Amino acid sequence: MARTRTADLAMSLPHGVSGIHVLPADHHDGPWESIIVPPGTKERLLGTAVLVLRHGRALQSLSGPPHGLVVLAGPPGTGKTTLCQGLAQAAAMAVANRGATTFVEVDPHDFPSEMLGESQRGVRRLFAETLPELAARRPHTVVLVDEVEALAVRRSTASFETNPVDVHRATDAVLSGLDALRATCPHVLLLATTNFTEGVDEAFLSRADLVLRLDLPDTDVLARIIRSSLVELAALWPSLRGLVEDDALHAKLADCCAGFDGRRTRKAILAAVAQRPDLAENPERLTVDDLFTAVEAFRPGPP
């Protein structure tokens, strides 16, 4: 029965929309606090978001008003999507005294089509009809588009093998739609992520109020991620608290994790308690040696 309700809900969503949520919501707490990024990153993102959500209409009077577009770029595993989801909740909490926020998740892979002009029509419908209708429900709206390079394809490098006419028209529709959305719905914040900045159209990037690159974490950030992962394990098995308090251990493990992304680092720490059946049965037996062994096993081998 639950599966049927989920399927019915998915079928009722507008084309290209994979999720609609009302924020702030308790079940959206967590990502903003748990994700670890360089100092100042969250403040800059939240400041940009609150400015658009709170003062978007007033800022239209400026000669160069914001587009309400933030782009997070960087390799996979650097936390772009998680950070956007957390930002939506944090921003919604910051403006909650003026009303709730609608959080819309868009799947750009729903739009490309082999039928000439179909992608363009779908994109135009998204920006001209779907998003304005959703934005009319509440005082604030945040839209997340993951892997935006699938929607705003860089026209200067579009391959002739992938129907470049439709690619150009779809990207044109994104740009004109973004401009129109900003004019009619200045309280909308659009968050976009990309693993491949070179694949995103230059005109789309030029409209962004903030393009933030998230690189692979350095050893200081890795050490904080490792400690955070151990804190979570110690919450389940308190005897591991000694590992949490060992800053020297975190630094040494971080050196061993050099080149890892945040996701891979957390998975390596979790994998330490799954190396042997006795550890999986009782993670309180976890040792320093187990941690180093797990990290070493997660290092990529020769190609």
Automatic annotation (TrEMBL):
Alphabetic keyword roster: ATP-binding, Nucleotide-binding
PROSITE patterns: AAA
UniProt cross-references to Pfam families, sorted A to Z: AAA (PF00004)
Domain AAA+ ATPase: from-to ranges: 66-218
InterPro entries: AAA+_ATPase (IPR003593), ATPase_AAA_core (IPR003959), ATPase_AAA_CS (IPR003960), P-loop_NTPase (IPR027417), Pch2-like (IPR044539)
UniProt superkingdom: Bacteria
Family membership: Belongs to the AAA ATPase family.
Full protein name: AAA family ATPase
Organism name: Kibdelosporangium philippinense
